[in-house]
Every structure is written in structure tokens, then in C-alpha cells.
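So, can you check this record?

>
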Amino acid sequence: MTKMLVLEARLYLRDWPTLLFTIGLPLGLLLVLGLSIPVMTQAGESGERMVDAQLPTMMTLLALLTLSCNIVPAVLTTYRERGVLRRMSTTPVHPARLLGVQLLINLVVGVVSATLLIVAAAVVFGAPLPGRPVVFVLVFLLGTAALLAIGLVIAALAPNGKTAPGIGAVVMFPLMFLGGMWVPRDIMPDAVRAVSDFSVAGPFAQALKDAWAGQSPELGHLAVVAAGLVIFGGLAVRLFRWE
């Protein structure tokens, strides 16, 4: 596992466009939007600015959705298409270990991206650090696991490496919308917010924002994210193909 982790990490680090897209893009959007749109740094009636929790949360969601809906499916379907997983199945090293290594690497990338977003928001805009750090970390790990499970389902259904990013995009953009990327959940119409509440991305983003703002996430939101992890994780195990 250690050797596989080192090898896959080296391959990942060589793919600088992927790192730029998953780490650089959310960080760049945070800085550009925060510095160029005044409303982002103006306090509302509650005294909270959008750069305090809303915008960093959305950029964190963007990074994690990019990893789960694009990067993970593309890599795993390409490995399957090229016979890497099939050849590994003939060795004592089960291909499931490669899957585990990929998930671990993408989790680390997600943590790095979220950490940079937290630091940038605090340093550049004076945004507060997550008010409930332990809860924030737990919500982050739970939501990331649920989103990666969705990515594994996409990898199971995609016929090859070329179609995986397209299928991932079809899943990713609705989840971004339901997560409040373009329209904050607070001002969504009731019908849209009801759909968002069961989309995994919506409850995850809301729970993450609540923990960032020092509030307790709603148990209903956490239950939906946990249910998404169980459902999509089970589908991934059932549907995933090594060949």
C-alpha cells in the first residue's frame, strides 16, 4: 500500500493541470470574487459577510465536487479501460487497494484545498476561522466520503475514460446549483430548497457553513449526508467493475 501510495502520488503531482483545477481554481475564484465584488465583503443585517462563511464554503464544495465527479471517475475508468485493474487481479495485490489509494490521495487534495481556502479567507479578508473546528472537520470528512462515493458510482457506470468526465459534469453542475453555488440556499424558492435538502450537496454545504459560522449543524442535514454515503457507497460496491 505504501509503495502504491507513493507511486500514485508522484503520478498525481506530475498532472499539474489537475492540481491547478482542483486547488488553484477554487482559491483563485475566492480571491477574485472577494476582491472584485463589493457585496462579498459588505456585512448584511446579521453582521456577516459573504466572505466569512458562504463564499469559502462554496469554493470548498467546488473543489470536492471536482475531485469526486471528474478526477476519480476519469482515473479509475482509464485504469479499467487499459487493463490495469484486470492485470492487478492476477497478483496477490487486489485492485481494491488501488481504489483505496486513489480515494486517500483525493481526500488529501481536498484537505489541502480546504486548508488553503480557510487561510486565504482569514489572511486576505479577515474572515473568522471555523467557529466549531472539530465539528467542521467531522462534517468535512463525512461529506467528502459521500461525494467520493458518488464519484465511484460514476466510475462504475462510465464505459470508458473519455465519457467519464462528461457523465461527471452532468452530475456535478446540478449538485453545484443545489448546493447553493449560484443561488444561496437562503433565497432559493421553497420547492427548489426542498430538493436541495435531499441532494447530499445541499445539506453538506449547509452543515459545513453552519460549523464554519460557529453554529451546530442540523441533525437532518447530517442524516441526509450519511444516508447518501451509505446508499452511494453500497451502489459503488455493487456496480463497480474491475474489467
Summary: DSSP finds ten helices and no strands in the chain. The chain has one domain: 2-239.
